[in-house]
Task: structure prediction
Amino acid sequence: MGQSVTPVAREARLLTLSIDLLGAAGFDGYLKLHNPAWNRALGYDDHELATTPYIDLIHPDDQAAARAVIDRMANGGTTIEFVCRIRRRDGMWRHILWSGQGAPDDGCFYIVGKDVTERRRLDQELENRAERLERINAELQDFAYIASHDLSEPLRMITSYLQLLQRRYGGQLDETADEFIHYAVDGAERMKLLIDDLLRYSRVGSVEVQRVPVDADAILEGVLRSHEGAILESGATVTHGPLGTVQGDATQIGQLLQNLIANAIKFARDDIPAQVRIERVDEPRQWHIVVRDNGIGIEERHAERIFKMFGRLHGREEYAGTGIGLAICRRIADRHSGRIWVESAPGSGSAFHVAFPDGS
Ligand code: ADP
Result:
């Protein structure tokens, strides 16, 4: 025969087991009832808990707020998620999150408390870390910008004096000297390209991205128009379908298209002229475009490397460039919470995909 258990005994068991602080606090300032979680969490024995005015356990800075909450409950009010610091027997302060309900007829308020000290510490630590990361990021950003900006000035001076040397003394010195000057001018010009690209890269990170509806067709037209000469000269054919509207930053989207199109033309095969096609892929909730070419292609194992800073697969003699263009594209995609990736194989062209969320 099963033993009969009274509801009260059952509830008492639950009170004993609870890891939360459960209690009834009298409006006379003393605890009337508490479960063992109080003893475990705060270290006081039953007698101490019953005879110490509970307001004395509250941190002096939190007492006024606690009094206001208790006053509300004295009128039958309810309190949800009130946090105050409670002194443990060993003198340490614990943050306790309280919910309570006043019961004027019983002369007390009923409360449930959860020790959130650890959770608050972790939250605080996370917050500090995020702040620190943000600061370091901003410093790096400033550094990259200032370094590339300040390097431009002395470089301009080197370049102009070298050019002066070349103009004024070219042909008057011996052949070797002419050659040295030529290399120096060449090096300075390449350095200028690098610095300009670095500046572009750091600018993408430093400006706040304004996400507004952008007419991608108009942007593409602009990019194609400004590259008309280069396209004609290379013998490339560039065609496109409608790209529609995208939520984003017009300047950055222009930069992205221009980098991808310039690459599609630059990395053409020797034997066939470049054919470039820019299209939108019809997908819900995304603005997904593809820039496809019939160029030299990329081995699959390099498909990630090319998006890294200075990730180049060829020497300068083969194809000019700094290796920063696709790193800029990746950064632009990141700033739009989007993705950029390539599908390609050597000899069979490349398809660069860009997908931004919330296209319309
Ligand atoms: P850059 O063009 O200055 O070299 P990018 O960052 O734009 O730098 O490109 C990185 C590398 O990715 C290129 O050097 C090239 O090896 C490869 N790449 C980029 N676009 C293409 C393409 N359309 N076809 C083949 N290879 C490409």
About this structure: Residues 259, 263-264, 267, 293, 295-298, 306, 311-314, 321-327, 350 surround adenosine-5'-diphosphate (CB under 6 Å).
